[in-house]
Amino acid sequence: LHIAKKLLPYIPNNAGILLVPCCRGGSAFTQGAEGTFSADTGASQDSARWGVGKPLYQDLIARTKAALQKNPKNVLLAVCWMQGEFDMSAATHAQQPALFTAMLTQFRADLSVFNAQCHG
């Protein structure tokens, strides 16, 4: 993965990079199918909507918690977020920044039990 290759020169030789992929092409905050979430299988294939409590968000939280629970030495250093172009095509595009900020606030709250493993 390109981002991991770019980060490798900046980490110690005895460290690694754990990526938690949660992307969904064509997803948006303001339009698209909500889909469903299952703790066993994650967000359904038709899930295309981000936001607090939405299936894609639940999947993001579940995957991140699983990565942090797997090893207490695992640390969340950053979230690389590339999304928004699909929202720009909707009449409701002005809502995207506030919806993203609300989701980020909830993300931090939902991971607060892992504060010792979360930096930044």
Automatic annotation (TrEMBL):
Keywords: Hydrolase. GO terms for molecular function: hydrolase activity, acting on ester bonds. The keyword Hydrolase applies. SUPFAM superfamilies: SGNH hydrolase. Residues 4-113 form the Sialate O-acetylesterase domain. It holds the Pfam family SASA. InterPro entries: Carb_Esterase_6 (IPR052940), SASA (IPR005181), SGNH_hydro_sf (IPR036514). This is Sialate O-acetylesterase domain-containing protein.
